[in-house]
Amino acid sequence: MSALQPGFADPVLDAQASFRAVLEAMSRPGRIIAITTPAPAPAPLNTAAAAVLLTLADAETPVCSDAGDAVAGWLGFHAGCPFTPAPDRARFVLATGAAPALTVLDAGTEEEPQTSATLIVQVEALAAGEGWRLTGPGIESEHRLRVYGLPEDFLSQWQAQRARFPRGVDVVLCAGDRLAALPRSVTIEEG
Amino acid sequence: MEAGYNFAYLDEATKRMIRRAILKAVAIPGHQIPFGAREMPLPYGWGTGGIQVTASIIGPADTLKVIDQGADDTTNAISIRRFFARVADVATTERTEDASIIQTRHRIPEAPLREDQILVYQVPMPEPLFRLEPRIAETKRMHALADYGLMHTKLYEDIARLGRIGTAYNYPVMVNERYLMSPSPIPAFDNPKMDRMPALQLFGAGREKRIYAVPPYTPVRSLDFEDHPFRAIRAPHACTLCNSTASYLDEVVTDDQGGRVYVCSDTDFCRTEQERAA
Prior knowledge:
The complex is a heterodimer.
Chain A: H1 11-27, E1 33-34, H2 47-56, E2 63-65, H3 69-78, E3 92-95, E4 118-122, E5 125-135, E6 143-148, H4 154-162, E7 170-175, E8 178-182, E9 187-189
Chain B: H1 12-27, E1 33-34, H2 48-57, E2 63-68, H3 75-87, E3 91-92, E4 101-105, E5 118-122, H4 136-144, H5 149-162, E6 173-175, E7 179-181, H6 191-194, E8 200-205, E9 210-214, E10 220-222, E11 249-253, E12 260-264, H7 267-277
Parallel strand pairs in B: 2-3, 2-4, 4-5, 5-8
Antiparallel strand pairs in B: 1-9, 6-7, 6-10, 8-9, 11-12
Helix pairs in contact in B: 1-2
């Protein structure tokens, strides 16, 4: 059995710093934010996705993960979250490989849209100032974001999901130690 | 920092629960999210919702400002500021421009807020429809359907009876043209400041156990009618201390002969104006 990697060096303050990074990303969709308090997560988990899950997941949030046993063991130990193989029953869905279709995840209900899943996707890279045009709450005029490594039909999936607001899945895109968020309220157009 | 407490008083599981609620609140602007509000070392109605939101976002790098009706020097503001200085060892300030987190009861600072600031509101009653429809199950359905005819009827009845909309504070707003939201009991004068504000706005209601949010640059529209447009009302006077004719004023009775003065409700703004004039 391999040795378990540690979690955050300071579980309280590192979680707070990571939360503020996620909050900033969610408040200003498409803006790329760096995680400054990395935890040494096992492969294939990247720094940003590891920080998001350590910060937000716990015993109350079933996680659906495609990242294998080492990650499940690490996350189960440090966050104490239960795992579920069913993506539609998870509060957090971690995709280190191909991202699942948004329609298979829990989108909440009309009355309680906040019960929806948050999809955490590891992507190859994020670039600001080019690519998609993002508009909506949190954005003064428009934000530009290019994402490398998402399914080709992600944009059409997103447009389909926009039609059912306030239901919908919120997405956190993680590349290395950087992340950007796509809350369900954002409108994405091809750049 | 006070020994024996976790950083910022709340335990980590509670903070995580509140943090998840805040993120969903930001993703669904204006929608109220239930959360498990904890007992705090001060009574309901003293800002327990705002304190729990602040405790869940605050870190050692933050500078906290707390205002109560615009003032930094009231009991509520001072005790909350001291609370966080004690349990989180954070820097506190009375200057709006120096703060990274501003917790407020019933006012928005006069100075425009920036992108790197977060405004946390203490909310007594998060449900804007509660005086019109007491059943929560029913108001939830009305929010789901964006069915806000009841509120328009109420405003119309005001106009029919009084000739104007009879709401001077807690004036209902539409957030991003989707959710009807209570702005908390800020004066209607402050409503226009919420519209497309560069700072993130978070709302916490402790007794009612609700959190909601307005992300930066989000349209916030005060409800009105074409022939009865929304007007931000202020007392038609200048501040006795700083002579400002733009700020929101408190009326202070000075004697029993009918004497009164008008002073800025935002004490930091008033002081800044006085320093500039001096």
